[in-house]
Amino acid sequence: MRLRKTKAVIAACGLTLAMAACGNAGSGDKGKEVAGKDVKCSDFTGRAAEICKAGKITIGVKFDQPGLGFKSATSDTPTGFDVEVAKILASDLGIDSKDIKWEETISDNREPFLQQGKVDLVLASYSITPDRRKVVGQAGPYMVTGQQLLVPADSKVKDISDLKGKEVCSVTGSTSIDKINEKGAKGVGFESYSECVQKVLDGTVSAMSTDGTILAGFAAQNEGQLKVVGDPFSEERIGVGYSKKATGMCDFINKSLTAAFDDGTWAKAFEKTLGPSGVDTPTPPTLDPCQS
Amino acid sequence: MDAVTSNFDLFLKGFGYTLFLFLISGLLSLVLGTLLVACRVGPVAVLRWAGGWYVTLVRSTPLVVVFAFFQFAAPMLGIRFGWVDVHIGAFDFTSFFAIAVVALTLYTSCFVCEALRSGVNAVPLGQAEAARAIGLTFGGTMSQVILPQAFRASVPPLASVLIALIKNTSVAFIFGVGEAVAQMRIMTNNHSSERTTIFLAYAAGYILIVFVFSFLANRLERHWRVA
């Protein structure tokens, strides 16, 4: 029965392939277009005003994190909470979301891309740290999350202390893998979170760990096979990255985020992207003041 | 430089894994490569054919794909390395390390085989004929006459193959082994303001290892030089 269904799907896809790409069954996750607001560019200063006048912006997001920044092979634009917040910011600069150029940034190239001006903003689950603030500007946080565990649905693991000396998967070189080692477990690193999911599913490792919001997305994708457990054992403050040379950026971002917190567009974006994975919408975090 | 000096133990541990990977898979690929070359130049047609195809297939597959095969496809076929569980000091050798060794060995042994084959071809045919004439079997001819001369002639290409292996171990960084590049990633993530110095420090580490190895290979070559 299952085989027949698969065959039918392949056949159907084969047919449609001639005309269009074979998309996901539920293409409802396609991000909505957000129109740019009517703004006066003279209200902004420095780089923010320049971007407003140019009417286009390049934003770095992740392409491999369901619920935050994710781009499937068949769609042109990424989706997720980071992406929605990026659209809010762009719209406050008077830029339609269709005029945003999405650039994939991975953990390793976020600072170089900002410094070289390849992207204007980075919203790529970008934790605010003092060391990063030495080389780039970081405004926010627009979300606070913590590291949890993703385990098989029948696992007895309750939190990280159950995994002392055991191997726990995460992404090579991420803050998460450092935290795993600190807590007495042994971090093993892979290229992406989806590869870790694979290793948890095939039983090579007993758990994987990173920000709870990311894990929730994978738990939702593999319902009945995986679950998120444990209290958060770290605090990640996710912010917006911009170049140190971009004057006026921080003031603009903080103003725009405050407005989004107050009028509910932030909460709406959260519900739409992370809500389906079972994450409750939190109260908006407190923004750091801009350093002058 | 602070990031590297204050985490020097991690720096060393990373290169420790790199060296372990290199030594173990280097040794194994020399053994497997020698067996392969015996197959390829041997008198048994089936083995010649099998050796030839093995080299052609594995050599034309990217190393990352070999790794990914053992990491993601093999568990579905029931091939796991869960029984590997050795801990020496601060080093853990588990399934991830074992898979890295297997992938690197299978991949590198093809190149070892071809480097050795060039050495075998350099041995004059008369040597083999003379060995046969005095009644040596194929095994005897290979182990007593051909391979000792072939090894000497193939030291330079073998050294190149093994130097490539030293650097190829870095592929293991995205497959669960905490070797040098994986440690470098952790450092650049935690100390993004010192990215360049961290890169340079790790590059220097690799250069040092390769220099030492090249030096030894040169000495061996001179020591073993065929008149």
Automatic annotation (TrEMBL), chain A:
PROSITE patterns: PROKAR_LIPOPROTEIN, SBP_BACTERIAL_3. Pfam families: SBP_bac_3. It comes from the Bacteria. CDD domains: PBP2_GluB (cd13690). Keywords: Signal, Transport. Residues 1-20 form the signal peptide. Residues 56-277 form the Solute-binding protein family 3/N-terminal domain. Belongs to the bacterial solute-binding protein 3 family. This is Glutamate-binding protein.
TrEMBL record, chain B:
Keywords: Amino-acid transport, Cell membrane, Membrane, Transmembrane, Transmembrane helix, Transport. The chain crosses the membrane at residues 15-39, 51-73, 93-113, 157-177, 198-217. SUPFAM superfamilies: MetI-like. It is a multi-pass membrane protein. Its main location: membrane. Residues 15-217 form the ABC transmembrane type-1 domain. It is found in: Cell membrane. It holds the Pfam family BPD_transp_1. Coiled coil: none annotated. Belongs to the binding-protein-dependent transport system permease family. HisMQ subfamily. This is Amino acid ABC transporter permease. It comes from Nocardioides phosphati.
